[in-house]
Amino acid sequence: MSTAEKSIVADLNLAASGRLKLDWARDHMPVLNRLREKFIAEKPLAGQKVAISLHLEAKTGYLAEVIRDAGAEVVITGSNPLSTQDDIAAALAVSNITVFSKYNPSPEEYKDHLIKTLETKPDLIIDDGGDLVTILHAERPELMENIRGGCEETTTGILRLRALEKSGELKFPMVAVNDAYSKFLFDNRYGTGQSVWDGINRTTNLVVAGKTVVVIGYGWCGRGVAMRAKGLGANVIVTEIDAIKATEAHMDGFTVMPMVEAAKRGDFVVTTTGNKGVVAKEHFEVMKDGAILSNAGHFNVEIDLDSLERMTEKKRTVRKDIEEYTFADGRKVFVLAEGRLVNLSAGDGHPVEIMDMTFALQALCLLHVHEKHADLGNRVLDVPYSIDEQVSRFFLEANDIQIDEISEAQEAYLASWEL
Question: In 3-state terms, what secondary structure has residue 312?
């Protein structure tokens, strides 16, 4: 049976459209292209089955093709109900990759796609948010018999993994790709910063300049969102629970205050924490009329939608991906993309060149787990510095950027305690 026949996608006839998007991504991903050439020649993943759960759009699709060209059998599903692009899913399904994913499935379908992906009994996994790992450990442990290990893409997923590790229940090694230094600097800061505002701007078609933007959380993603909001001319307020990060936000020129005060001022509110209920009932009660709420964390739990529904007298869809909630006192607030990831549910996600670096990290870390799994232990592992640096070196080379090298005398000086 062909991969197209085994796959569950919305419409295979969309494959030609998806192929155009994949080709565009490929042409702007020089780091992955360099790895792909090496993988085609060496087939380092020959005989391995790789299960992927990521936001299924063009950049992810090209990563899947690169892993396929390394010799692996690839099975892929989405990691968010609203981020799968049906034409990309179709294009992959006719390109020797098995796909279980479509846009906006029911919760039952979404879960079934994850389980079907795992029922292929993979050797290696790439996860986003920990969905595959959670199902394997909590519901279907019999499906992990072949698994050597894998990689995790997000902060949310790594929190789950560390909890499993701490309890002694993690059954295979997982590399915390999200925690790679280069991913913090480039993906989380520049990628999230740009893509969140791409999603908000294309969805609302409203000006940002002169408005007040509340950014909840000042981790690497929050930094990027705040920085780009400032660049668009907004007045930026940051809310935090961490004293060090709050101090940094203050030093970066942003106003810092508690969320219950910030809620009174925000025209746009963006969550970037990975935690639940950071916009809650007490904030809705004081929120200014017309406030626009969006989430740049992983799951749709950062905005307490249950409380919002209970407080609402009238709800309607006023524009694609915009729900209007009207309170008893006549105030209205708007939620973008059902409170799901606004940059992927209402946009195309991070810029192609950013994901080129992140997905190169994924590919190289997956190969690292494949080659070293017997020595890694059932732990959450940092990305080896050599891999982190290698990706940046490939990026510099692709962009014809040269840097200096340290001399032997300088190395000797740094290694000595003597002046």
Answer: strand
Confidence of residue 299 (pLDDT cuts 50, 70, 90): confident
Helix (H) or strand (E) holding 126: strand 124-127
Give, in degrees to the nearest 5, the angle at Cα 348 between 344 and 353: 115
The CA distance from 116 to 219, in Å, is 34
Q: What angle do CA 93, 87, 123 make, to 5 degrees?
A: 35
Let me know: does 121 contact 142? Beta carbons within 8 Å: no
Give the pLDDT score at 419: 67
Structure-block tokens of residue 174: 């997982």
Domains of the chain: 3-183+350-398 (3.40.50.1480), 191-345 (3.40.50.720)
Q: Two tokens at 312? A: 């609402």
Enumerate the known binding-site residues for substrate.
128, 153, 183, 187
Q: What is the pLDDT of residues 8-27, one digit of tens each?
A: 999 999 999 999 999 999 99
Phi, psi at residue 161, to the nearest 5°?
-65, -40
Buried/exposed code over 55-88 (b: 16+ C-beta within 10 A; e: otherwise): bbbbbbbbbbbbbbbbebbbbbbbbbbbbbbbbb
Assess contact for 65 and 92: CB atoms under 8 A: yes
Closest alpha carbon to 161 in 384, 385, 383, 378: 378
Q: Which residues are annotated as a binding site?
A: 128, 153-156, 183, 187-188, 217-224, 240, 275, 296-298, 343, 350
pTM equals: 0.90
Rounded to 5°, the CA angle 81-381-351 comes to 45
DSSP symbol at 254: -
Query: How far is the C-alpha of 269 from the C-alpha of 292, rounded, in Å?
Result: 6
pLDDT tens digit string along 60-100? Answer: 999 999 999 999 999 999 999 999 999 999 999 999 999 99
The per-residue pLDDT for range 321-373, each reduced to its tens digit, is: 999 999 999 999 999 999 999 999 999 999 999 999 999 999 999 999 999 99
* Proportion of the chain above pLDDT 90, given as a percent: 95
Q: In 3D, which of 72, 4, 78, 76 has the Cα closest to residue 39?
A: 72
Distance between first and last Cα of the chain:
70
Which residues belong to the annotated binding site for NAD(+)?
154-156, 188, 217-224, 240, 275, 296-298, 343, 350
According to the model, what pLDDT value does residue 184 have? 85
22, 30, 85, 113: which is closest to 59 by C-alpha?
Answer: 22
Specify the pairing of strand 49-53 against strand 73-77. Answer: parallel
